[in-house]
Amino acid sequence: MDDLITSILRDLQKDLGEEFDSNFQRGGFFNEPWPDKRDGEPSHLQKTGKLRKSIESVITGNRLKFSSSEPYAAIHNEGGTITVTKQMNAFFWAKFKETGQPQFYVREL
Question: Which of 4, 11, 38, 65 is found 20 to 30 A from 82 (Cα to Cα)?
């Protein structure tokens, strides 16, 4: 029985790994497109490819786990709140002064 479960998990690991990779190519999670950024531009979850390349899977006993080593993966997957620090705010304003282009929505602290 364990060999059958392991075989099924390996098949799932391969199929789901390919499907997750295809999500990046499609720009959405299965049939649901990723939401646009706040400025209306398309999502940039595949801008550098680091997140896509970081997705790993491991079979442990009767479990299959997919994960990412990128620290920002969880907030993209599960949502959440990012607290803007004074350093982040200063960086934004320095870039704005340099380019004149507001690239991010930043609330004052």
Answer: 65
